[in-house]
Each structure stands twice: as structure tokens, then as C-alpha cells.
Amino acid sequence: MKTVLVTGSNGLLGQKITEKIRAEKSVNLIATSKGADRFSFKDGYVYAEMDILNPAQVRTVIEQYKPDAIIHTAAMTNVDTCHIERKAAYQLNVVATQTLISLCEEFDIHFIHLSTDFVFDGANGPYDETAKPNPVSYYGETKLQAEELVKKSNARWAILRTILVYGIVSDMSRSNIVLWAKGALEKGNPLNIVNDQYRMPTLAEDLADACLLAVERNAQGIFHISA
For an engineered disulfide with 131, which of 61, 127, 157, 216 has Cβ 3.0 to 4.6 Å away? Predict the structure, then answer.
């Protein structure tokens, strides 16, 4: 049975991956995130506190648990925050990815990297995997830089680009478009929404399935995963 390490396990996608692995018992799971574990249940997986901005700690965790694959979900994903806090965005989205992909190369670990449709400018969608990226936001720039680091490595890798992930988890401290709209409607507040974009929101459970399928099939290359 494979051992899979997930970064950002306290986030929406990380929690969905953890839930699926617990239910299916398909792999040995090492859930990692910065800070305490947010799950109420504590069985069916191992939790290791790991700050992806601390290379020494990342190495220690990887050497201890010896994963066969890493699913890298941790990132700064708020577009506005990335624009304002550029140094933090670069550290989380680019530097941390370099740390992980280097260790995957060193220890022959399959690296599943979550990316985004924001690597494109949105002018000529929908896009297939061969389309040329052209980000117009700093968030998109950092995610594209991370992709380039992954592609240049000698590790086994898969890049999963996705769109507007939504879902509900037990810890709802971080919102997504569905929870945001639900909350606004319940309060009778107006919704300010762009009217010049076509988006394909992706259910977090479906994206979690894609991540686990990539691990199971040792997938390599770039894949677009959306609704």
C-alpha cells in the first residue's frame, strides 16, 4: 500500500482528500499542515505538523514517513491577497514548491502539484493542456513559476490545473464561492459578481478523486480538472 503525504490538509481540498482516504482505506495517509490538526476524528491517518516554509522541518517529515507520493495542495490562493502581499505569495507558492520538488527528486517521490486556471489570461478559453499560459495576476504568475520549477525537475510529476474549487467541510473558517453566496443570500445582502467571465466551478470531492487517481496511476504530465 502506498504512503501519500498531503500538504495543506487543513484546507478544503486537503480535508476532502483526507476524508476519502479514511473512507476507502486505499493508501496510508500522512496529513500535514501548519498548526494543529482541524479534524475532529483522529483515526485512519497520521497528522504531522509541517510548515512548508521551513525546509528543515519538511525534510524531517519526509525522511520520517518516506512517502511514495506527495499531493501539494497548500498555497496562497486569494488573488487580491497575493497582489498585496507579494513576498508572502512568492514564498508560499514558489519557494515552498521548490523545496518540495527538490526533495521529491532526491527521494524519488511522485509529486502531484495543484495549479490553477489563473495561469491563463482568460481571453481565448476554454483551454486545453497544450495552451500557452499568460497570467495577468500576480497569483497566476506565482503559480506559473511553480509549474516551471516542477517541469524542470527530474522528479516524477503531475500538474493538476483546476478552477474555482468549492465545497463544505467541518471547519468552515475559510470560505469559498458557494459558502460566500449562501451567507450573503441568507443575510439579504447583494452579490457583487463579475459579468465578463465564464467559470466552471469544481466540486472539491471531484478534485480529490482526481488527485488520488493521479497517485494510483502514477500519472505524469499536465491535466485540466474542472466541472
Answer: 127
